[in-house]
Amino acid sequence: xxxxxxxxxxxxxxxxxxxxxxxxxxxxxxDTFSGDLGAESxxxxxxxxxxxxxxxxxxxxxxxxxxxxxxxxxxxxxxxxVKQGK
Amino acid sequence: MKLVIFEDLxxxxxxxxxxxxxxxxxxxxxxxxLAEKISKRLxxxxxxxxxxxxxxxxxxxxxxxxxxxDLAAVKNDTVLMVNGQVKAxxxxxxxxGPSEIGMSGDQVVYCRLSGSDTAKIDAARIGVETLPLVAGxxxxxxxxxxxxFYQYSWDVMLDSPHDITHDFKLIxxxxxxxxxxQPSGIRGSKDDIYVAPGAKIHPMVVIDASNGPVYLSEDVExxxxxxxxxxxxxxxxxxxxGAKLREGCSIGPVCRVGGExxxxxxxxxxxxxxxxxxxxxxxxxxVNLGALTTNSDLKNDYTDVEVLLNGQKVNTxxxxxxxxxxxxxxxxxxxxxxxxxxxxxxxxxxxxGEPLPKSIPSFAWFIGGVVTxxxxxxxxxxxxxxxxxxxxxxxxxxDLDLWEKIYEITAPERDAAIRKGRKQMVRxx
Lengths: 86, 429
Fold this sequence. Notes:
heterodimer, A: mainly alpha, Non-ribosomal Peptide Synthetase Peptidyl Carrier Protein, Chain A, B: alpha/beta, Spore Coat Polysaccharide Biosynthesis Protein SpsA, Chain A, UDP N-Acetylglucosamine Acyltransferase, domain 1, 2 domains, seven-stranded mixed beta sheet, 9 helices
């Protein structure tokens, strides 16, 4: 069964919470990773790797790292999942 | 006779990561590189070089007027093609003679072609790179039992100390043509020391030539409290900063070296500015080793060092092998390398407090103890461009094309390491 966007959104927040050691319930889609959620540059690398592992996808690092907030991450990961047949 | 020096295409990967960006015969050993040694042994300048095709454009810049992957210059002449991996001291071949191929085991030592046979070569059809291996297909084979080869990069490094002494004699220069400020300490015979014009040796420097010669090239600068033990070679415009340069070091041009270095080879433009130990290492160019970066070169049980090269475990046959570090790789402060580490090119490595894995692929962002995609390989190019411009060298479109090809060649090993790294990273969360 194809992945749903709601599922992607839930799992993106869970991964973000785990990597940044914050409460998933407090993450809003408008939040930026570095400004609002406090991700340091090395944690952004960890986020990309963790999303790839969670969704079993490969992301272009330049495109992935240009994603600045949770909403855009959900869109980008959802599109990548669809393209890669997940 | 026209001399052609060729790369053995079947073996070039044995010299990774150093040979990723240069032909194998450009590896330094002693004072010269392997091609220069062959050229001097045969008392003949090369008319052409043959190497992997993707290296052609960037290597041409260094080859000067010598043709690269182009045999037009030798057409109709008697040609002696010599495998660039042959140890020059073991090369015994007559320039004149019938067409024949010299073999040692399954490796071509040389291929000699008479003018009429050279004329028959259809390089366009067979591919110029593979020519030495196929041109002699129908020729008589002569077994060359005494020929010896460098098979891996550490073979070159291990021969380098001996070759410094050999090459020093070959060059034949002696004496102090630069300046040595007093007080200084010279041990051994002044006949075993050459300080080239423009070289500046500050006070409180010890040059110990009692166990081998010391050659300091033009415009080398040696800061106080440096100790240089021969055999040693330091290339032009290099800077030694209170270094303990133990015996057997061959330092390329425009390097900066501090801390303790022993029996190591370093190509041009590399930095090991600060304290930290580098032993029995082979370092490419534009490498930057952060303060306190240290490698082990001897196992605690004194057994032969094994390395993991191209996914295969290889016994080096030596108890002393440190790190092999590819071009443009940079280490953070306090990076530790285990004995016999193979560190890919264009990497960015952050210390973990423990020795890093023994094999790190090229273009690795090694962060948090795992290989990651990091900020991508294009960001590494930006850093390389900055590093080259800081040393007044050029980073051109040709360099970019070369490294894009290397990125492609090294992808399988790197991708596997990234996948493994992702799993390790998630397990730690």
